[in-house]
Design brief:
By secondary structure, this protein is an all-alpha fold. It is built from 4 helices and no strands.
């Protein structure tokens, strides 16, 4: 007889600096493409990548979870620091 055990998943609020040692290996190609377009609206991102705006929102949520940053301001600073985006005057 085989018994199954329920497994618990614990979600810990990890501070952003814990991800500083990672370069961004956990972000998928699509998530990086979306992060590069951080100044665009979700609709414009969706049109450029041929995906649904709902999918874009889902990717944003995944990016926030993986990086530990909650706002677009924090994500912009992260992307700039990691060389994902560049600011041009």
């Amino acid at each position: 007889m085989i018994t199954a055990r329920k497994q618990s998943v614990v979600i810990v609020d990890v501070p952003p600096f814990a991800f500083e040692m990672l370069d961004h290996p956990t972000l998928t190609k699509t998530e990086l493409e979306i992060l590069k377009r951080i100044r665009w609206t979700d609709n414009h991102i969706a049109l450029s990548l041929f995906i649904s705006p709902y999918t874009v929102a889902s990717h944003w949520q995944n990016i926030r979870i993986k990086t530990g940053y909650k706002s677009k301001v924090e994500l912009t600073a992260y992307a700039t620091k990691k060389g994902i985006i560049e600011w041009v005057n």
